[in-house]
Amino acid sequence: MVKISALQHDPAVHVPLRPGDPTPIQRNLNPSMHPFAKARERTRALNAAKLDKIFSKPFVDSLEGHIDAVEVLAKPLESLTTVASGSWDGARLTTIGQILSSPLLPAPSKYGMKPTPISNLTFPTSNETVSSVRFNLAEPSVLASVGSDRTFTLYDIRTGKAERRVVMQIYKGHVAAVMSCDWAPTGVEFVSGGWDRTVRIWSSREAGGREKGPGGREVVYHTKRMQRVTSTIYSSDARYILSGSDDGNVRIWKAKASDKLGVITGRERAAMEYRESLTKRWSVDKEVGRVMRTRHLPKAVYKASQLKTTMLDARRVKEERRRKHTRAGESKPVAEKKKVIVTEQS
Questions:
Q1: How many helices (H) and strands (E) does the chain have?
Q2: Is the separation of the CB atoms in 178 and 243 below 8 Å?
């Protein structure tokens, strides 16, 4: 005798109680158990990524006044709206949106006394050209310098000796010389400006940047009229970036391109945070990742990056072929982006 397993349902649950009543529908009201829960969330993530791109308008304003290349920018710690810009035509103190004064720094007199250095700070094994120096704001006696051989050196001005020298990690993306760099007050991101007429935002959490923001790339800002960028700086609240270029303009950018300016209600902020969490969760999806990675570069920068990629690929193939025809046991080279510290001396 064959046994047959059958599902048995109570007919009273599936038929109307009285004539004319609608037929009962069984539903599981738990949203996590909905059969289309993942599909709906993916669609919302895709729409959030598209909205982020649609509203990505990083350029805020351009501060005019200089008639020559802007070489350096500086900000006071006690103000969020004041910035000083140094150009080949002099220096200006600027409040964002309005220039307050005329050139402040005249040329030095040739009859002035020649100053003598207090101390000569050098590292015994270093012969690089120092391109920038900064004092530590927390410890004024500590001075840091960066050099042309991508070294970072710490000095103690009390002893006049170098305390530490580190060959640093490399962030690649610019297709021409990098002229300036500045850390965000949060300590998580930094901005760089280059000879390729672009401003790029990177993340220190992983080699390659915050974009290594959406999609695994650095964020690139540019305009048609902007020329070679010679200086970049973050605002004290980390919401804005200022860049100076050799066309004589100081430009203001949003640190996050899709941020809304002005008053944001609690409901708007909650919706923005929800969309951001969705894009992060679904960034591995093919369509969502493609939208997040999409960016538009100037034609000259795009062609230069293609040429640079071709040259690097040819170098890699050459090294692979050379390694195949050498003695066995040679270690495979590590990618430069994966080297946290190449060497350290003390």
A1: 5, 18
A2: no
Q: Which of 198, 121, 207 is nearest to 164 (CA)?
A: 121
- Asked whether 223 and 57 are in contact (CB, 8 A), the reply is no
CA distance 182 to 293: 24
Alpha-carbon span 293 to 283, nearest angstrom:
10
Provide the β-strand partners of residue 231: 244
Q: Is residue 220 within 8 Å of 200, Cβ to Cβ?
A: yes
Interatomic CA distance for residues 41 and 282, integer angstroms = 9
What letter does residue 72 receive in the DSSP assignment?
A: E
| Paired sense of beta strands 161-167 and 142-147, if any | unpaired
Collapsed DSSP state (helix, strand, coil) of residue 37: helix
Other C-beta atoms closer than 10 Å to the C-beta of 40 total 11
For 263-294, the pLDDT digits (tens) are 889 999 999 999 999 999 998 999 998 998 88
State the Cα–Cα distance between residues 251 and 197, nearest whole angstrom. 12
Residue type, 238: A
Closest to 274 (Cα-Cα) out of 99, 41, 105:
41
CA distance 294 to 52: 11
Distance CA 335, CA 337 (A): 5
Q: Apex CA 52: angle with CA 192 and CA 32, to 5°?
A: 125
pLDDT in tens, 59-71: 888 887 777 888 7
* Dihedral, 250, 232, 213, 62 alpha carbons, nearest 10: 0
Helix, strand or coil for residue 100?
Answer: coil
| Closest to 203 in 3D by CA, of 219, 227, 215, 185 | 219
